[in-house]
Structure formats: C-alpha cells, structure tokens
C-alpha cells in the first residue's frame, strides 16, 4: 500500500470521520489556516489516482468517499514502520518507546492485559 503525505492523510482522516463529503465540506473541518479550495481539490484527485478515494455525482459537483478503510491503512502503515525502523520486531518498537520514556510501566501493563484478552 502506498504511503500518504501529511496533507493526504489529513484529508483521509476527515473522510474516514465524516463519510461522503464535498471538497468544501472537507475544508470546513480543517484547522486554521484553511487550505485553498483548489489545493484541497488537487489532494482529493491525487488520492483518487492512488486508489484511496472514490467519488459520486452530487448535484453539479461530486461527493468523495474513502475506498480504503482506516483500519486497513493503519495496519499497513504500522507494519511498514516496524519493518523499516525496528527490524520487523514489535518488541524492538515497544522497547524504543520505553527507552524514550514515551511509555510507562502502567502503559505496558495495559498492553499485556490486552494481549492476554486476545489469547483467550
């Protein structure tokens, strides 16, 4: 799966959240300073070319919608990150976050509890 730029991911997050939306509706939910209509429209077209977004006719314009669900993209992105930066090891990734003090012992306990639930 192709990686998205920050701007493309921002648009995808809004489409995953809102569902079908016109470009103007996407812009409404973006933080200030809001991008120009043409900029957002171009990003949406790029996402269509990449196969992430589809569209349907809505009046004189179009409504756009996600073709790839968030969970699928999330899994592919995390897998790529683990493979690229942590030698394919989730253990190495978790160790990194613990060493960088981005994860507490309480967080680790919570993760272990979740893992135990999935084993049952």
Automatic annotation (TrEMBL):
GO terms (BP aspect): negative regulation of DNA-templated transcription
Keyword Transcription regulation recorded: yes
InterPro entries, A to Z: BlaI_family (IPR005650), WH-like_DNA-bd_sf (IPR036388), WH_DNA-bd_sf (IPR036390)
GO MF term (any one): DNA binding
Alphabetized UniProt keyword annotations: DNA-binding, Transcription, Transcription regulation
Entry-linked Pfam families: Penicillinase_R
Membership in a protein family: Belongs to the BlaI transcriptional regulatory family.
Protein's name in the database: Predicted transcriptional regulator
Lineage: Bacteria, Pseudomonadati, Bacteroidota, Flavobacteriia, Flavobacteriales
């Amino acid at each position: 799966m192709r990686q998205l730029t920050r701007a493309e991911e921002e648009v995808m997050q809004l489409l995953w959240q809102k569902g079908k939306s016109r470009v103007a509706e996407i812009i409404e939910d973006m933080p200030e300073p809001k991008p120009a209509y043409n900029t957002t429209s171009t990003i949406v077209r790029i996402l269509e070319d990449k196969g992430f977004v589809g569209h349907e006719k809505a009046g004189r314009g179009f409504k756009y919608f996600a073709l790839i669900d968030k969970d699928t993209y999330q899994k592919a992105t995390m897998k790529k990150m683990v493979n690229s930066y942590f030698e394919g090891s989730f253990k190495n990734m978790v160790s990194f976050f613990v060493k960088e003090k981005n994860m507490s012992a309480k967080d680790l306990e919570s993760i272990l509890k979740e893992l135990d639930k999935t084993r049952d």
